DNA sequence: CCTGACATGTAACGAGTTACATGATTGA
DNA sequence: TCAATCATGTAACTCGTTACATGTCAGG
């Protein structure tokens, strides 16, 4: 399972509570791997049994206690082992593609409206990613070693969104040409 | 669930047995939505209870009987209804991105080897898709209405694979530059 | 005789989502 | 007083995968 490894990577960067991790999975890491807090707590429990992480309670003023997790040496070993195994190639999976394929059996105008909404969403996401790149990595030619991975992932996000937008444009053009 | 609708689209094009559908999900439709035969039989059962499809047994010579499914009017109505509801935007989900992000905690050379394998896989997939496009849609400027959806989905596949390959190239370059 | 294509399922499990459950503090 | 943020979980359910289960026929 990749969620465990996503958590290990996140904890290797910085210790965190389940709540902190849930917020990270809403932002940075969450751009390519989503997880709900419920699932995170569940998996953290299993990971602690497996000794990949350990926790200690931290009391706070005016706030609930929190359980701060950190990665163990066994966790670091597992990360090393996992990184050396080839990643299975994930097949594409797109409900939108199914719908596009079946346009002739559906509401053509609604599908086109959907394409326009998706195009706008891709556009917004590109703007967001590019602002993020500008802010965190203004000089991509001289990145620190520990920044490279996150930067390349961001680049992957930008490329994917640009492609999504280009696809929407092609679909709109094809449908307009046909009219 | 989209599998039900993928099956509806497939049956709207042509009646099929569970076995036939499983083969279609290994090829054309399967390029953007995978399903095992076990899952298909399970879902077909539910869809028949819901009256979206109906089946009749067909005896064959020298072969086992088969249950041929066809879409009902209710099934067509459902397809129309579904097509008019906006498709939820599927967030990216990539174990490979997690691994890339965590390269500093792993085996850098193994990750790079993985990138090269993935690049080759994208390249092969592009060749496959382009041959398919050439064979089925030699003249994209003049497509029949019932071909347009499948053609555009194929285009989406080509664009996605090209992007995947471009990303791999960027990763390889960045790691080589750093050395 | 053995493999592969044809044909249809069940059972057990794992991953992930949705709904439920609780409780403190801060600011509008 | 009401909503938002902080903080941690359980329970029920759905979707999908893997393993198991069975049997025919054609071709090498």
UniProtKB/TrEMBL annotation, chains A, B:
Keywords: DNA-binding. Coiled coil: none annotated. InterPro entries: Tscrpt_reg_PadR_C, Tscrpt_reg_PadR_N, WH-like_DNA-bd_sf, WH_DNA-bd_sf. One of its GO terms (molecular function) is DNA binding. The keyword Transmembrane does not apply. Residues 7-79 form the Transcription regulator PadR N-terminal domain. Transmembrane segments: none annotated. Pfam families: PadR (PF03551), Vir_act_alpha_C (PF10400). This is DNA-binding PadR family transcriptional regulator. The lineage of its organism: Bacteria, Bacillati, Actinomycetota, Actinomycetes, Propionibacteriales.
């Amino acid at each position: 399972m990749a969620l465990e490894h996503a958590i290990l990577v996140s904890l290797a960067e910085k210790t965190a509570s389940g709540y902190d991790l849930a917020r990270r999975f809403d932002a940075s890491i969450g751009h390519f791997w989503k997880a709900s807090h419920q699932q995170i707590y569940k998996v953290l429990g299993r990971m602690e049994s497996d000794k990949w992480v350990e926790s200690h309670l931290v009391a706070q003023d005016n706030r609930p206690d929190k359980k701060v997790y950190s990665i163990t040496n066994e966790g670091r070993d597992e990360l090393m082992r996992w990184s050396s195994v080839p990643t299975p190639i994930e097949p594409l999976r797109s409900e939108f593609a199914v719908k596009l394929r079946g346009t002739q059996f559906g509401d053509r105008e609604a599908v086109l409206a959907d394409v326009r909404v998706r195009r706008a969403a891709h556009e917004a996401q590109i703007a967001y990613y590019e602002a993020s790149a500008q802010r965190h990595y203004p000089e991509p030619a001289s990145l620190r070693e520990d920044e490279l991975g996150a930067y390349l992932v961001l680049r992957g996000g930008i490329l994917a969104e640009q492609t999504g937008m280009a696809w929407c444009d092609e679909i709109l053009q094809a449908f307009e040409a046909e009219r």
